[in-house]
Amino acid sequence: MPLADHLRELRNRLAKGVLAILAVTIIAAFFYRDIIDVITRPMLDEIGCHQSFGELAGSKNARCAHITVSGLLAPFTLALKVALMTGVVLASPVWLYQLWAFVAPGLHRKEKKYAYAFVGFGFPLFLGGGYLAFNVLPTTARVMIDLTPDGAENLLPLDDLLDLVTRMIVVFGLAFEMPLLLVMLNLTGVLSGRRMLGWWRGMVIGITVFAAVATPSPDPMTMLALAAPIWALYFVAVAIALLNDKRRRRREAEGPSDDEASELDLTPEDIGGVEPVSAARALPEQASNERVNGYDDVT
Length: 299
Fold this sequence. Notes:
Pfam families: TatC. By secondary structure, this protein is an all-alpha fold.
């Protein structure tokens, strides 16, 4: 396709994706309170000041946080942010398909197979990381709220709480994609399983540091809740890479199959008596200057 047709197709694909996001955003705007309740309910049940002062004084959750919304325009901004975030997430099948439909014609069959595998395994891994974050955050919030000094009240803006929940879900989800990326690099021949195994000490330390930075709580249990699954996924990726390397070596030793063309070796010593082509030879000199059938030479 000419460049103008590619740009026109890209514009149409982007327009369809944006229209899908806008449609879902408008619908989600009517239910933004229910969406906020679903996102924040586990956190509020753990740290929210939803009991009376007398009940709090004698309970183990004496320290709590008052959820606040500051400013006249803050409720509108909050509703817009929640609706737009919901639109982007729920409309992801549409705009991801539009992106894939634009890129797929330029991919080879093997590249398409790897892309399908990445999406097929990547989406469940991302959901697993997000689910883990959603369940770890209430415990993390309880540890943080317990650090509040005596006699002080903790005021937690609702938009900050939503940003924290969203950021942690995205961070945990992307962290779970790292082993899959290593496997894809091994399948494409960029990274060997033996090299991945040699990195295990650095990877364990790096994952631990990442978990310590990514989790807002200083609680070591929360850090281990993120680091331990990524450790396990990393070693699973190493095992898959080693098995794939073993299979590749066995296939190379067996040679090509009956329906597979072998590679040509055109090195000079293996050509086997084939005379190299010299420069073009000139035609023999014409014996006379006589014209034959109106032409200068017999040809």
